[in-house]
Write a structure and sequence with these properties.
20 strands, globular, binds guanosine-5'-diphosphate, alpha/beta, 32% helix, 12 helices, four-stranded mixed sheet, ten-stranded mixed sheet
Amino acid sequence: MPTVAVVGAQWGDEGKGKIIDLLAEKVDMVARFSGGSNAGHTVVNPQGEFKLHLVPSGVFHPGVTCVIGNGVVIDPAVLIGEIDGLRGRGVAIDRFFISDRAHLIMPYHLLLDRLEEESRGKGAIGTTRRGIGPAYMDKVGRIGIRAGDLLERDTFRERLSQALEQKNRIITGLYKAEPVKLDQIYDEYCRYGELLAPFITATELMVAEALEQNKKVLLEGAQGTLLDIDFGTYPFVTSTTTMAGGACGGLGLGPLKFDRVAGVFKAYCTRVGSGPMPTELLDETGELIREHANERGATTGRPRRCGWFDGVVGRYSARVNGFSSFILTRLDILSIMPSIKVCTAYKLDGETVVDPPYSASALERCEPVYEELPGWNSDITGARRFDDLPEKARSYVKRLEELLGCPAGIISVGERREQTVVVRELF
Ligand code: GDP
C-alpha cells in the first residue's frame, strides 16, 4: 500500500489544497509534516468553500485519520478557531490528532515576528507575521513550548517562565516594547490545553502503526520547495523544510517508507512577498493572469506576483525532492493566452545557465530565456482524460515533462474535484 508525499514545487499556493482533498478520498491517513498557520489551503468541495491553515485537507472525508505532525508549529488559538468553524459547518472532527511534540506559537512569537520584521525596514523578508519564524527559532534554541507541555501544567509553567525571562529582555531592551505577562499567557494556554487535550498524542506511533498495517498514507507538505529553509531562495524563505524529505523528521517516518513523491506545480508561477522571481511579469500580461486567476493569498489576501512557468527552478525543485511525477494545477487559467512562454534557462552576467545560482542576489540578476508555445484558446475545464485536452495543451504538458525530468501524474483544469485529469494514479 503506498505512502505518497505531495509537496509544493514552487513558491507555495500551487493548489495543494484541492489535490490533497481529491487524493484524501482514496487514503486512510493524511499527515501534515511542516509549516504553520502561514500556509493557507483553499478547498472547494460539495460541502462548500473552506480556507484551512492547520487542519489537514483530509478532514472532509469521513474515515480518514488526519494528523498534524511534530514538524508543524501550531497556533492553538488559530487551530481551535478552525476546529470550531469546521464543526459549525457540519464537518466532524473525530479522527484528528496533534503530535505532542509539535511546537506551539506563543503570543511573544507573534509580537517578535512583527517587531523583527519592522526593524528590518527595506530588507523585510515579507513574513506573514504569524509567529512562525520565532517559534521555529525557539524550537532550535531549545526553549520552545510543545503541545504535550499543555498537559503537564507544572512543566509548562516552568518552561514558560524560563522562556519569558529571555523574551522579555529582548522585547523591553531591544525593542522598547511592553513585556508580556506570565500569568496571562499561562491561563490562556491552559484553557487551550483543555480544549486540545483530546487530540494531543504520540502521532509518530500512529503513523508507524498505519504503515505496519499497510494503510494508505498521504504525506501533506506546506508552502513550496523554493521557500525551503535550505534549498529555497534564502533568506526569502520560510523557517522550515518544505521538501518531501521533511516528512521523515516532521512525522517520524523512515526514508524507505516513501513509495512516491509528487510535486505540485502551477501551470505558471506566483510568489507572495519579497525575494527573487526571475519570470515575474510586471506588465499587463502579469496583471491579466492575476485578475483572471484571482491570485491573492489565502492567508493574507496580499496580491500575488505572477509570471510564466520557470523551468529552471522547476527542474531544480524536481531534482532536490526526487519527484516521481508532478501534478499540474490551473492549466485552465492559461486558456486565455494566445501564446505561452516557458523559461528554459537564464542569462546571468552574460552567461547562459540552466541551474539556478545559489544566492538570491544572483537570482535577482537572472534574465529568463523563453521558449514560446502556441496557446490553445479554448475551454478545457471539461477535460477528464489526457486526450480530451487540445493538442496544444498536451504539447505544453509534454514540454514541462521534458524540462522537469519526470512525468505528469495529475492535471487540474478547474477548482472542483471532478475537474481533474488523472494520467497516472498515485494510490
Ligand atoms: P494551496 O495553498 O497550494 O492549496 O493554494 P491556494 O489556496 O492558493 O489554492 C489555489 C486556489 O486555486 C484555490 O482557490 C483552489 O480552489 C484553486 N484551484 C486549485 N486547482 C485549480 C485549477 O486547476 N484551476 C482553477 N481555476 N483553480 C484551481
